[in-house]
Amino acid sequence: MRKPYTKPMTPTEIAATTDSDLNFTDIPERDETFWQNAQLVEPDRTQPVTLRIKKSVLDAYKAQGKGYQTRMNAVLETYANTLPKPRSTR
User: Fold this and answer.
1) Which of 9, 37, 71, 81 could bridge 13 with an S-S bond, Cβ 3.0-4.6 Å?
2) Which of 71, 45, 41 is closest to 58 using CA atoms?
3) Where do runs of H (alpha helix) occur along 23-90?
4) How many domains does the chain have?
5) Residues 6+ positions from 73 with CB-CB distance below 8 Å
6) Mean pLDDT (the chain, rounded)
7) What is the DSSP-derived secondary structure letter of residue 66?
8) Please, are residues 22 and 14 in contact by the beta-carbon 8 Å criterion?
């Protein structure tokens, strides 16, 4: 078994790694209790929308390069997470 990593591995080192080289000792066993308590978590999918945004805002995000829509979504999601949760009507 190899020593813990002190630097990132090169692609050549990764390709040469076998299962016996991997250290799984810090991963707990998954017994029946784990699966009885497991919950399915669906990914939060994106939905296409039409949204009017000021040109200056869009230009600022686009100027940062590829992935500007993902960054805009991250900012909106962070803000949405600060909002109070709606009360259940049940």
Assistant:
1) 9
2) 71
3) 32-37, 55-63, 68-80
4) 1
5) 46
6) 88
7) T
8) no
